[in-house]
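Name: Carnitine O-acetyltransferase, mitochondrial
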Amino acid sequence: MLPHWSTFKLLGLKSSLVKCMPVSLYSTTEKGKGTLFKYQNNLPSLPVPSLDQTLTLYKRAIIPFYPLGREDTFYQNYCKVIDNFKEVEGPELQKRLSHFAEGKRNWLSTIWDNYAYLGYREPVSPFVSYFFSHKNLNTEIGKDQLMKSAALSHRVINFMSKIEHETLEPELIKGSPFCMESFKWMFNNCRVPGLPSDTTIKFSPQKNRFMIVISNGYFYKVYHHDLNTGERFSLGQLYASISAVHNNSHQKPRCSNPIGILTASNRDVWATNYKHLCDNPLNKISLEQIQSASFVLCLDDNFPTTIAEKSVDCWYGNGYNRWFDKPVQLFVAKNASSSFLGEHSRMDGTPTLRMNDWIIKQISKMSVTEFHDEKKTAPQYTELVFEVDPFIQSQIQKEKKAFKQVTESLSINVWQFHGFGKEEIKAYGMSPDAFVQMLIQLAYYKYTGTVRPTYESASTRMYFKGRTETCRSVSEESLQFVRDWENTSKSGAEKIASLRSAINSHVRYVKVASKGLGVDRHLLGLTKMLRDGEKIPDIFKNPMYTYSQHWFLSTSQLSSNEFNGYGWSPVVPEGFGLAYMINPHWLHVNITAFKNNPLGLNPDYMAFYLTESIQELKEILSKSVIRAKI
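Structure predicted for Carnitine O-acetyltransferase, mitochondrial:
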């Protein structure tokens, strides 16, 4: 998951620090706290890769994109440029980067947050945010909009409390701790539009014990702790408050000036409108209430039925019943279909995956008897008021049209294949993630007859404030695999051998990237060390440098049996957004693209070739005699 790289200037962007409101975040030193952040102080710092290692890996990664591979004259000439950079400009930029990294536990964090997210000016929805669609629950709670809304909110508040008191278990992957820093930014946080880049604001959870409920386009401040006693509200009390808000909002016609649509704007436009809104003291107060709220719950009036409809609903929805700048936003439709949308600037998908997976598992075990409210506390909520002047009215109408135009330019296909998943792949001694990456490569090759730059997110959370590094999925081995697979003269054994070689190559790259030693973040860091007026080195001006970072396929895996959807947008006009889940016995790929894709590519056709590819892989693998012992 990453923003539209085609809209960035690859060079010349000045990095600026992420601006955050000074506020005491959850501390790891307070007495009585749990173990959530127990490993933070001992996490290693993100390393600065060696120049030689990065350039060697880079030269290898771009080979598949030259028609003649290693023998291509253009490749050989570019290698000379790369080698010259290693001897001439590279050492000085590397020295500057190493100096920049001194005293920092993560030299990349502020650069990346601004370059990839806060400095990005296109609308966060649908272009940056990611979504999870929850599976349907065949229970009384799971079929009632308001009961499910209360249940979701109650369990989210429980999860929030675990973070606040640090009782949430820290994550260990194969015995190694992962950075839990991003959990601090999950609640009571908000992205704020600004020029030339946005900021993030973090508020005290103890001083802001409320959530925002958006219903029929109106905004309500709904308390989840009692204003008088400070006690957390019960499930029944939350249900009463949410029901009261729903009733109140629907006693009026749908809001004619839905402020939320402004958050779907181009960020420069939203920054201008935001400043205008804040010039009115009443509006400024309402905006601060939204920003400081724990999270947002949206009560929708639609009935999404198919998985594609559910996915679209949480990907961008109707636009007006939303606040796209919050990192945790939940939606519940009239038919109780529920989902989640995450603003991406301060956290990636793994923390919110954990939260959503946990709350759906919790809700599936709940009983309606838990909604009984013995205290009969009066609902505690207030409606937020916005004074909308003619200028903002015109901007709302303008953004409604712009949002409709943008979202109608996108298409989606939700591909699922049951009866073959993680366990079946492991039975053949293969990495499930690498297998699906090769499945995607094969389907794309069948569709287009070529391979193109492919991005996969590799987690670097083994380091302090680690987020992601790029895994370049296309390799010499993956290219050979797709060619061999489509070669009718190759035997099944030869095809499987080629598949294994491609998978092993991919696994090696993921391991390198997860250690923070990939190509892309290091090269980005080197470009950021260039000073104003300095000549841009030829390595960065070569067409292959730009092309190999033009992600025709943007992919990432987050898996949960509690979801029936997960995805985001394509990141370049010609590309696919391919979000995939690998569950024990089924696979899921959410395929998004622009309808006016310059290459004429269509998600429906990509889904067709995914099916053809998995059926062929499954058939030939089933005939192989060697299966791994599990």
